[in-house]
Amino acid sequence: MRLSVLLSVLPAVLLAACTATGNSSQTGSTSSFSNSSGGVCNADALSPAGQTASQSQVERLVKQAGAAQARILAPDRMYTTDYDPTRLSIRVDEQNQIISVYCG
């Protein structure tokens, strides 16, 4: 009897664990900023290397690139490798200084 109860509860517990893991990886790995007027990203003209990735700086870069959104890629953090042509990716170092920017 105990085994059947355990087997009926186990799938729900595993599903809840998978859902919690998916949410934490999304919020803990990157910071996202959105621009409602954005479209396809073009980071070719941007050269913000060495500047601090403050919220105002990121918003300015998103507008200049024409991107719809941005994400900050910090060192030693996990992030998705999906390609999004409307997203500006901003790679930073440990001191939150911008190393590079690219679309995707």
Automatic annotation (TrEMBL):
<protein>
    <recommendedName>
        <fullName>Peptidase inhibitor I78 family protein</fullName>
    </recommendedName>
</protein>
<feature type="signal peptide">
    <location>
        <begin position="1"/>
        <end position="22"/>
    </location>
</feature>
<dbReference type="InterPro" id="IPR021719">
    <property type="entry name" value="Prot_inh_I78"/>
</dbReference>
<dbReference type="Pfam" id="PF11720">
    <property type="entry name" value="Inhibitor_I78"/>
</dbReference>
<keyword id="KW-0732">Signal</keyword>
